[in-house]
Amino acid sequence: MNSAEESSPRPENGDGEKFYTRDEIQSHNLSKDTWLIIHDKVYDVTAFLEEHPGGEEVLLEQAGGDATESFEDVGHSTDAREMLAQYYIGELHTKDRKKEAKKEVHVTNTRGSSSWTTWLVPAVAAAAVGVVYRLYMLDHKSS
Ligand code: HEM
């Protein structure tokens, strides 16, 4: 019998990370096989269920789906965020990502390039008004 080589249809990036589709992740929604998506990364938290300080129920409620919002709502500590790395198994397929991720980049760019112009324009305008007002008052005093 030939042991056929396992061929993976998943795309991989340069770092050899695996990409999973939402459908594929969705099937790992059991207490013996629990995957979660947090910030477009995929985590296999099966071994963590019993250790989770917040209880296994909350993790199972999100099993196979996107837990980003509930994870952030709790306000997890830095320690908790560092723990994520232990359960990381890959990335959410780019076609299944929400558009939100791109927004952040725009916000950063806008803030970086226009921070000084935002206050400079009104400051110059205010100075000009001040000068005109003083000239006007001087004119009135002397006449
Ligand atoms: C792999 C993902 C997760 C890890 C590594 C993790 C880790 C932790 C850790 C270390 C704590 C203790 C408090 C802290 O250090 O912040 C905690 C608490 C908690 N977590 Fe998670 N968590 C994960 C996912 C989630 C998700 C998806 C939810 C919600 C659906 C959740 C809900 C909670 C709750 C309710 C607490 C208790 C908070 C409290 O009692 O103050 N966690 N988690």
From TrEMBL:
| Principal subcellular localisation of the protein | membrane
SUPFAM superfamilies given for it? Cytochrome b5-like heme/steroid binding domain
Give the region (Disordered) as residue ranges: 1-22
Q: Which Pfam families match?
A: Cyt-b5 (PF00173)
Q: What Gene3D superfamilies does this protein map onto?
A: Cytochrome b5-like heme/steroid binding domain
Positions of the Cytochrome b5 heme-binding domain: 17-93
Q: Which domain of life is it from?
A: Eukaryota
Q: Name one GO cellular component term.
A: membrane
- Locations of Basic and acidic residues compositional bias? 7-22
GO MF, one term, reads:
heme binding
Q: Does the keyword Transport apply?
A: yes
Family, similarity comment: Belongs to the cytochrome b5 family.
Identify this protein by name. Answer: Cytochrome b5 heme-binding domain-containing protein
Q: Which organism encodes this protein? A: Denticeps clupeoides (denticle herring)
Q: Tell me the organism's taxonomic lineage.
A: Eukaryota, Metazoa, Chordata, Craniata, Vertebrata
